[in-house]
Amino acid sequence: GGASMYADKACLTREEALKMSIADLSGPDAPSHLWPGIIGRVLAGEDQFLVWEARHPDDGSLFEIEKFITRINFGEHLYLLCNIRDISSTKRRKEADAAIRCAINHLPEGVVCTDEDGKIIFVNSTWMERLSLPESGLPGSHLSEIDPSFDSDTWTRFCHSLQEGPVSLQTRHRSREGIWIPVEMTSRLCQENNRRYICIRLKELPGSS
Fold first, then answer.
1. Using the 8-state DSSP alphabet, how is residue 63 labeled?
2. C-alpha pair distances (Å), 21 with each of 7, 11, 89, 125
């Protein structure tokens, strides 16, 4: 029983779903053999929250779901209520985000992302190592911490220029040990989820001192 909870995702009619068991609609990594015990705990009054591997009955494709199972009493009758949420798209998005972060961290050039006020949000691993920054990075610090040329007035003019398009310039970054690193800095204004960021690509130039 319980198969009807998958009907919409699996494109089944209610009648087709009711003929299937939880095992029929579960992936190989789902602990279907524990299902009787799970139901027993719910009947005893212990709600269950599970992440479960589900299987499409037609093509065998796998997707992840969250299941919240509780017991409800209605008059003289006892029912199990199972709320299901498909989290496969969330998992794919997280995997894509992780892949993007990995790629950016391993670029041969530096990447820094700030907000519009110049506060540092992200520094890729390449530039963290080049500047000998701590593992915690510089979250919340202003870009002027590594590029003192960006005082308040300079930053304001810089942001104004970005309104017209990408900006390239040469400047110097200062490492944790006080080494000055000449860089070519290419910046652009980006927007994501109604928030604006300044994304900066850094190419080291000869002449560190």
1. E
2. 12, 16, 25, 48
Q: In angstroms, rounded to a whole number, what is the distance separating the alpha carbons of residues 134 and 77? A: 61
Distances (CA, A) of 78 to 36, 44, 48: 17, 11, 16
**Residue 9 CB contacts under 8 Å (≥ 6 apart), including other chains:** 54, 56, 63, 65, 84, 86
pLDDT digits (tens, 9 = 90+) for 33-58: 888 898 899 989 899 998 888 888 77
In this structure, the dihedral spanned by the alpha carbons of residues 24, 27, 31 and 36, taken in order and rounded to 10 degrees, is -20
Q: Is the pTM of this model over 0.85?
A: no
Written as one letter, the residue type at 107 is L
- Do residues 121 and 111 touch, judged by C-beta distance below 8 A? no
The answer on pLDDT for 17 being more than 70 is no
- Give the list of residues 6+ apart from residue 194 with CB closer than 8 angstroms, or none: none
